[in-house]
């Protein structure tokens, strides 16, 4: 089938020929006839299948028929997208396919001044492409009215929900006229997206050209297992292949994207980053340099990458594995677009193994593992643990000790070696039982303290023990300990229980002396010195 078989008007066919389009993609082949009939459409197609042209071409043809009947230009078509890059791309597509038509279109988004956008709106437009935030802002200022909308397009609905725009989308839908044609496109169709579609569409025709969240067959995929610390070196190694003329590198965070760019600059590789913290002018400049070939590497986050449509993008590298499996499909969909071939490479460290397994379950494919590269993962198949201190834990059979455990083990070995050099034995219950020496207090007292190190239980507990000079080593019961000062001075073993309950006397230390608030008993200095003779 060709575009001539889709009953398109001559100006559009001429524009498609100028763009180099020869045959429609599956999504275009199915969606264009349905939309030309004015029906609602639910389209589920992965990124890079040509779905922008699938709704832009029929919209231009429908508006061209209505153009002669309208005297004033009011917004007739609203296309709502999640990101600035995607909004710019869609607006460029309307410009390319409608270059031979007398229709006006414009795009509005945040991050830049609103004055030029307001001026374009005041001149009158037929097609408005917008992001939710700037659209609601200008609506609140009275610059935009949506009462004449006849066609509403919600593109990348799944990403719209992921970015938290669901409430903004509902606010926009609430002010649209009830009688309109609705187009709903999404690369994936989770239950939340399906629920949103049911609130917008009325008896839609469904077009699903590929299984949900499947990857393009023209994209060759592979994975490198690597330690996290070696990822930057592996990236430089991969980019050493001069056959990689243009590559898009994905990171999870904005800070991570900037760090990768710095590492590449140190290695002499031209690269720029694109993410939400960059100004719109900086993002457009980086994207323009990448498309024109002035830089070889573009590092992007997932949100900023939506809408990046670069011809002849040969490689996509997942520097970090995404936590959401569907995001992987969007990433590698940047290459291999519209039937072209592409290569997707993933770097997976030990912490990302679970996320990568979830991706494999989603796409239902076995991705080949690259072996023999210079930076293989050092702990393949092992789980590194650092259990809490002073806690007994049950470890897995394939677990290896973490840094804290290894340091503790080395410290124990050094301590044991030092004790063996000076003839002493390690102070542990296990070692004592093996040598025939017990660590119980009674046994240590019997040994006489020749080679064993005295512990707390070896020290004298009462005055009678202090006064002994090599007497019996029998353990004294708690009741045999002296209870007061008089008992310390006595040589007998029987305590005076009656005097235990008497109030102790205080030493007269002169006039005006007050006893200590803690009621300390007086101590016979001679007897005390004699007690310490041990």
Describe this entry's structure for a reader:
The chain has 534 residues and is an alpha/beta fold. Among the domains are: 3-208, Rossmann fold (3-Layer(aba) Sandwich); 219-381, Rossmann fold (3-Layer(aba) Sandwich), CATH 3.40.50.300. Helix content is 38%, strand content 12%. The protein has helices at residues 10-19, 26-36, 51-67, 84-97, 115-123, 132-140, 157-162, 166-174, 191-200, 231-239, 254-266, 280-292, 302-305, 325-332, 353-363, 403-421, 429-434, 441-446, 463-467, 485-489, 497-500, 525-531, and strands at 41-44, 77-80, 105-108, 127-130, 151-154, 181-186, 205-208, 219-225, 247-250, 271-274, 297-300, 315-318, 342-348, 383-385, 399-401. A seven-stranded parallel β-sheet has the order 3-4-2-5-6-1-7, with helices on both faces. A six-stranded parallel β-sheet has the order 8-13-12-9-11-10, with helices on both faces. Strand 10, helix 12 and strand 11 (297-300) form a beta-alpha-beta unit. Helix 2 runs parallel beside helix 3 (51-67) and helix 14 (325-332) crosses helix 15 (353-363). The model is unreliable at 380-384, 426-452, 463-479, 485-495, 497-501 and 506-512 (pLDDT under 50).
Report the portion of residues in β strands.
Answer: 5-15%
Return the CATH class of one domain: Alpha Beta
Q: Stretches where pLDDT falls below 50 for ≥5 residues? A: 380-384, 426-452, 463-479, 485-495, 497-501, 506-512
Distance between the termini: 110 Å
- The level of helicity is 25-40%
Largest sheet: 7 strands, parallel
Give the overall average pLDDT: 77
E-strand count:
15
Mind telling me the CATH superfamily name of one domain? Answer: P-loop containing nucleotide triphosphate hydrolases
Strand order of the largest sheet: 3-4-2-5-6-1-7
Proper CATH architecture of one domain: 3-Layer(aba) Sandwich
Total DSSP helices: 22
Based on CA atoms alone, the radius of gyration comes out at 40 Å
CATH topology annotation of one domain: Rossmann fold
| SS-based class | alpha/beta
């Amino acid at each position: 089938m060709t575009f001539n078989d889709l009953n398109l008007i001559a100006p559009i066919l001429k524009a498609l020929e100028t763009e180099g389009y020869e045959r429609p993609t599956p999504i275009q082949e199915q969606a264009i006839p349905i939309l030309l009939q004015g029906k609602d459409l639910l389209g589920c197609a992965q990124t890079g299948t040509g779905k922008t042209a699938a709704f832009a071409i029929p919209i231009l043809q429908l508006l061209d028929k209505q153009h002669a009947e309208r005297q004033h230009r009011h917004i007739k078509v609203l296309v709502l997208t999640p990101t600035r890059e995607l909004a710019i791309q869609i607006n460029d597509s309307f410009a390319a396919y409608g270059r031979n038509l007398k229709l006006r279109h414009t795009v509005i988004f945040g991050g830049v001044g609103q004055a030029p956008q307001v001026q374009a709106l005041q001149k009158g437009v037929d097609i408005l492409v917008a992001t939710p935030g700037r659209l609601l802002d200008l609506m609140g200022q009275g610059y935009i009215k949506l009462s004449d909308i006849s066609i509403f397009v919600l593109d990348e609905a799944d990403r719209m929900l992921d970015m938290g725009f669901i409430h903004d989308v509902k606010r926009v839908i609430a002010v649209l006229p009830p009688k309109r044609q609705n187009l709903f496109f999404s690369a994936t169709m989770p239950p939340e997206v399906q629920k949103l579609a049911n609130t917008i569409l009325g008896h839609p025709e469904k077009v699903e050209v590929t299984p949900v969240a499947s990857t393009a067959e023209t994209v060759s995929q592979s994975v490198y297992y690597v330690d996290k610390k070696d990822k930057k070196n592996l990236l430089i190694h991969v980019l050493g292949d001069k056959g990689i003329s243009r590559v898009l590198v994905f990171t999870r965070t904005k800070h991570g994207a900037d760090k990768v760019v710095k590492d590449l600059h140190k290695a002499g590789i031209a690269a720029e980053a694109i993410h939400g913290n960059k100004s719109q002018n900086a993002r457009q400049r980086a994207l323009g340099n990448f498309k024109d070939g002035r830089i070889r590497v573009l590092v992007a986050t997932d949100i900023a990458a939506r809408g990046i449509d670069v011809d002849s993008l040969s490689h996509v590298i997942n520097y970090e594995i995404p936590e959401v499996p569907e995001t992987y499909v969007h990433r590698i969909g940047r290459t291999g677009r519209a039937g072209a071939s592409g290569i997707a490479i993933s770097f997976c460290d030990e912490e990302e193994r679970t996320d990568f397994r979830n991706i494999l379950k989603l796409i239902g494919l076995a991705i080949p593992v690259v072996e023999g590269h210079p930076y293989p993962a050092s702990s393949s198949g092992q789980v590194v643990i650092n259990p809490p201190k002073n806690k007994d834990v049950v470890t897995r059979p394939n677990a290896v000790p973490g840094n804290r455990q290894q340091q503790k083990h080395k410290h124990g070995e050094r301590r044991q070696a030092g004790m063996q050099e000076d003839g002493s034995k390690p102070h542990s219950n296990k070692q004592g039982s093996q040598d025939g020496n017990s660590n119980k207090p009674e046994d240590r007292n019997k040994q006489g303290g020749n080679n064993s190190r005295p512990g707390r239980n070896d020290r004298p507990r009462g005055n009678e023990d202090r006064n002994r000079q090599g007497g019996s080593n029998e353990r004294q019961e708690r009741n045999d300990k002296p209870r007061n000062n008089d008992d310390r001075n006595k040589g007998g073993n029987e305590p005076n229980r009656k005097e235990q309950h008497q109030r102790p006397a205080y030493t007269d230390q002169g006039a005006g002396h007050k006893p200590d608030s803690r009621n300390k008993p007086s101590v016979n200095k001679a007897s005390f010195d004699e007690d310490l003779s041990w």
